TrEMBL record:
Binds 1 zinc ion per subunit. It is an enzyme of class 3 (hydrolase). The lineage of its organism: Eukaryota, Fungi, Dikarya, Ascomycota, Pezizomycotina. Keywords: Aminopeptidase, Cytoplasm, Hydrolase, Metal-binding, Metalloprotease, Protease, Zinc. Belongs to the peptidase M49 family. Its cofactor is Zn(2+). This is Dipeptidyl peptidase 3. InterPro entries: Dipeptidyl-peptase3, Peptidase_M49. It comes from the Eukaryota.
Length: 696
């Protein structure tokens, strides 16, 4: 594995600006967030919790003096550094599969040398090593995915076999009929005999219990298949989280935080996601809090079916200066909605595929104090429940200390012509920031689902349905009662949603009003034309870089955004004439993408608009079949692309890792400690995070 590029998520200055009361709230919410770590490890792989215990046991065995440990094991420190790089990557990705790409990674230190490290220190470390050594180095599985020979998923323990889709469809039908939402569940299959199988819906909750799922329209047992609801998955971690939430409760800043915490606790106690959704409705209406938080089973990226979600815990402190600009954009965003391809801005109506009124979201820039997740995103748009987003609203959050890292990363620089590399690097972070902002507020914040919420109750006229702008004919599909975006589009839902959001950001980035809002004028050092050109060059480099996360062995994509970027580039290559040129020299190992600057607005923007319109209408009308045909064709990797991939993999950018801060109590005073951006610093921060200690 390649050693990660490590950045410090500096937050001390922002934290020091909080009041003592707010610091205590941030402290306990951060402790609650990090207490979900073992849930994520468990969701990644069967061995991940054991590997974490092994890393921490080794740290404690030498009190973080890794040079001394190398000497005791009679190893060169260079060998130990290989293990430290692995440990830093493991901790930053919350498991032994990359958060971006889902590929498994193993240490570069040999198994024999790592065994010497493990056995020369403490009985605890040696015992942990015995438990995980084989799984740590075992290949396959190569990546996360549907349970199979080359891939694995702990969302579906025991579900290997040709009947996987049939079995999961049966369980999905039962869950839908009983109104059991899937986000905080896993599905375990147990074969009792050749004629009897049991499917346990493992629901995350503190309370334990089990019951056979009785339904009206389907028998409890079908052909020897019994479905049960089993509560208590992740119970220890959720109990710990609730205990910290109880401590944070004493330091809330307002009544919405009071109500949100109580709803969160109740949801984690019972597993009831309707209660969790209530907490999110309250959260959306908690405007401009002094400490921002996100907690729960949030993102479905790593579920191969795209419906079950990874736990996530985030605590951030608003950055007033950057938030001011974002709020200015939020307050005028209605104007930019009217410039999207499916909206007729001159008619006075936004049409069938857009909400008539765009509710300006709470849009803030924060510095993350805690970000417990397999990916630290530059920005987020939540909640992920579309009924809440359309009826109540949503929040946008940009992580400013995460964004800082972007200005220091190469990110495919070798694919830019040498004459342009310096300029590309200088302008890239400027364009990327605006792209992320537009992605969050207008990419994830626009659109209207055409639906039948209950039999006979439509949000459009079924006797005179709106015309589909793709076909020119009346729409033929919509969301039926009980159907959701993720349930209908399943494995495509996350990547199509991200692709659509990326397209919105790229489509609008040439808007002069938006660029002026962010300070880019003809008088500035970085001019509007520089931002626009850099955006299209990024679409080229990011489209090619996306191939890093395609696995030729399984023919599967490992990351939603990567597949989206590749699909966008393929569409631009097909749909425009000479806008992009890709030069590939396999012998020299050189791959270069060029953009004709004179064709960007003339050809590039209309092409993005055509792709965006299709994905948007497919999404709004629940046309999963049309979407699948269009999107799978665009994201198919042909022989030319495989040749590009070989060069990209050979020059792959190092994976990114982050060093997070910790807070701790000194009496009633909360102090903060930041760690150096090194592998040692990351390991120390986790060792001092107290994941295994009692709540205090």
């Amino acid at each position: 594995m390649v050693a990660p590029q490590i950045f410090q998520l500096s937050v001390a200055r922002a934290f020091d600006g909080l009041s003592p009361h707010q610091k205590l709230y941030a402290h306990y919410m951060a402790k609650a967030a990090w207490s979900g770590s073992r849930i994520i490890f468990r969701q990644v792989s069967p061995e991940a919790n054991g590997i974490f215990d092994f890393i921490i046991a080794l740290y404690h065995s030498c009190d973080g003096d890794w040079e001394h440990l190398a000497s005791r094991a009679n190893l060169d420190f260079q060998d130990v550094q290989l293990f430290l790089d692995y440990a830093a990557a493991f901790l930053s990705n919350m498991g032994n599969y990359y958060g971006s790409g889902d590929q498994k990674f193993i240490p570069d230190i040999s198994k024999a040398k790592l065994a010497r490290l493990a056995t020369c220190t403490s009985p605890n470390a040696a015992a942990r090593w015995d438990q995980i050594q084989d799984a740590m180095f075992q290949i396959p599985p190569l990546s996360l995915g549907l349970p199979a020979q080359l891939t694995q998923s702990t969302y579906y323990p025991g579900n290997e076999g040709p009947s996987f889709h049939e079995d999961t469809a049966l369980v999905a039908e039962v869950m839908n009929e009983l109104s059991v939402l899937p986000e905080n569940t896993r599905l375990e299959k147990r074969v009792l005999s050749s004629e009897e199988e049991v499917f346990d819906i493992l629901q995350a909750s503190v309370r334990e219990g089990e019951s056979v799922c009785h339904t009206a329209n389907s028998s409890t047992i079908r052909s020897g298949k019994t479905v049960r609801l089993v509560n208590g998955d992740h119970k220890d971690e959720l109990a710990r989280i609730n205990a910290y939430l109880e401590k944070a409760f004493d330091y809330v800043s307002n009544s919405p935080q009071h109500d949100m915490i109580r709803k969160l606790q109740d949801s984690f106690l019972t597993g009831n996601l309707e209660t969790y959704k209530d907490s999110q409705r309250i959260w959306v209406n908690d405007k401009e809090p002094p400490v921002e938080t996100v907690m729960g089973f949030i993102e479905p990226y790593r579920d191969p079916l795209g419906i079950r979600s990874e736990f996530e815990g985030i605590v951030g402190i608003p950055d007033p200066d950057e938030t001011r600009v974002l709020k200015q954009l939020s307050n005028v965003a209605e104007r930019f909605v009217c410039r999207l391809p499916w909206v007729d801005g001159e008619s006075g109506s936004k049409g069938a595929f857009e909400k008539e009124v765009f509710e300006a979201p709470d849009f803030s820039s924060v510095q993350s104090l805690a970000y417990c997740s397999s990916i630290v995103f530059p920005g987020i748009n939540l909640p992920n429940y579309n009924d809440i987003r359309q009826e109540t609203g949503y929040k946008n959050i940009i992580f400013s200390n995460r964004m800082v890292a972007e200005s220091h990363r190469a990110r495919g620089l070798h694919m830019v012509d040498e004459s342009e590399q310096a300029t590309f690097k200088k302008h890239r972070s400027h364009a990327y920031y605006i792209w992320v902002v537009l992605h969050e507020i207008l990419g994830h914040g626009t659109g209207r689902f055409l639906s039948e919420s209950e039999p006979g109750n439509f949000n459009f006229n079924p006797d005179n349905p709106p015309l589909n702008p793709i076909t020119g004919e009346p729409i033929k599909t919509w969301y039926r009662p009980g159907q959701t975006w993720t349930g209908v589009f399943r494995d495509l839902s996350t990547t199509v949603d991200e692709c659509r959001a990326e397209l919105v950001g790229a489509y609008l980035i040439d808007d002069q009003e938006i660029l002026n809002l962010f300070g880019y004028t003809q008088q500035g050092e970085v001019k509007p034309d520089d931002i626009i050109y850099n955006m299209y060059l990024q679409l080229g480099t990011d489209g090619l870089r996306g191939l890093e996360n395609y696995d030729p062995a399984t023919k599967k994509w490992g990351q939603a955004h990567s597949r989206a970027h590749y699909a966008i580039l393929r569409h631009l290559l097909r749909d425009t004439k000479d806008l992009y040129t890709i030069f590939c020299d396999p012998q020299a190992g050189k791959l270069t993408v060029k953009v004709d600057r004179t064709r960007v607005i003339q050809q590039g923007k209309p092409s993005l608009g055509r792709m965006l319109l299709k994905l948007h209408v497919y999404r709004c009308t629940a046309d999963s079949n049309g979407c699948r045909e269009f999107y799978e064709d665009l994201s198919t990797v042909d022989d030319d692309a495989l040749g590009w991939r070989n060069i990209i993999i050979a020059k792959k950018d190092p994976p990114v890792a982050f060093s997070h801060a910790n807070t701790h109590l000194d009496g009633d005073t909360v102090n903060i400690r930041e760690y150096e951006p090194t592998a040692k610093g990351i390991i120390q921060s986790w060792a001092e995070r107290g994941i295994d200690l009692d709540v205090a």
